[in-house]
Design a protein that fits this description.
mainly alpha, 2 domains, 10 helices
Amino acid sequence: GMTRMRMVGIFGTTAVVIGFLLAVYKIARHREFVWLFRADLWALVATVMVYALTPVDLIVMRYNVNRIMAGDSAPSVQISVHPIDAEGVRELIPLLNCPDEFVRDGIQSLFAMRWEDMSSTPRHGGLAVGSWSEFTALQISERWLKQDLAATRDQWDSHLDATRQQNDWNRFRLHAYQWY
């Protein structure tokens, strides 16, 4: 399956290719080493900025969900062992209809756990915040996730029972572990 580290690898490989092309350009245009050094630093900065702005979890989870829904359950290991932010969890909603019962039950448990976590942690309902720390804690993806979980609650609310939630989550992790 796809992971955050594979995304880092993609961006890193891209930066190396750009650096190589800049070196070829330097040689062809008879530029100085200082020019190449500056250009490579700009390429590195641009790569880091693009990575920081890329919704990595969204891309990773969308790819993994598509593979799972196509019948390949191996990417489920990425869901069971790696942390997923709110934008990534939203991409897991199609797995509520997954034909693999271990995956489906595990996702229902994950949604119930996230719902309980979001309900127990004070969140800002509106955009008006009183302090800088409240402003930096505001994440629109968490608000969207809570709305999506509320809209699909009838498909996973049976997993609000702590025993069932933990049992199904453990079964999912054991099922996914075969591909670890």
